[in-house]
What does this fold into?
Amino acid sequence: MRTSRTPTTRLSRGVVALAICLVAVGLIVVVLSAGFDWHGFAGGLALGAGIGTMLVGAYFWGWMNGLRRQGSSARWLPGEEVRR
It folds into this structure.
């Protein structure tokens, strides 16, 4: 079977790459803020921004993973065991 690249595939790879970069940047900000022991409002802002960036990256990564697997169907249903 021959497959061709579609814009959706490129878009999904781009979003996944962006999500990975967001997670990495968020992790770097959190490690730097904890490592340099930033205090006060700026330290809290850096920690919050780092954690928020990581959460947004994880959300987009999971979102694209779900869109990519939209064609898969459930293999096991709890009600089927009862019927047998």
About this structure: Residues 26 and 50 are 4 Å apart (CA to CA). The chain has a mean pLDDT of 81. The two ends are 38 Å apart (CA to CA). Residues 7-35 form the longest helix (29 residues).
